[in-house]
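hey team, just a heads up i'm posting the complex here instead of the shared drive bc the drive is being weird again. everything in one block, sequence lines first with there labels, then the predicted structure for the whole assembly after. its two chains so it's a bit long, scroll down
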Amino acid sequence: QVQLQQSGAELVKPGSSVKISCKASGYTFTSYDMHWIKQQPGNGLEWIGWIYPGNGNTKYNQKFNGKATLTADKSSSTAYMQLSSLTSEDSAVYFCARGHGGPRDWGQGVMVTVSS
Amino acid sequence: DIQMTQSPSSLPASLGDRVTITCRASQDIGNYLRWFQQKPGKSPRLMIYGATNLAAGVPSRFSGSRSGSDYSLTINSLESEDMAIYYCLQHNEYPPTFGGGTKLELK
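-- predicted structure starts here --
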């Protein structure tokens, strides 16, 4: 069955960067978009962008341009999202989710806390 | 960006009730509409795709419908396991956008 296993919770300092991972199994990693979504308490869900691991193509929500960078490693079936210049507004749970067109099957989420 | 206006934001209901949640799209999205269920501390689960299609493993008491720019999720004969937050998502146009969520809770 499809599984998306995300890395563990992160506590990071303001101004720093963080890279979170999403290891896929149970399907052909290179054949599906991998989406990333942000969820803040009380603020609902925001789509960050997707990467197509088959060729590395990416598409970002303009709001996250310069904030998020999506990459993928075909050899390990792992997608990554790096978040840079972190502020308290970046504290959230981040999900990866595979799917064509939009997210379908979701990982368990990673809580990122930005605090000094 | 396309705005998805979801209502109600909170829905108290009793077991066995029939409930309906609605999302209104600010622009045409065709049938590129998905519904997700999220329980506390869990990731969202796909319930409906293509506005009306039941995702694999989803109980048949769930259904999706469309009337113009209004998209609805209906749950017949509510069960305790259905208590959760429900979100709609449009993916017709970038960026995909979610509704604000509906918290379904026991009355």
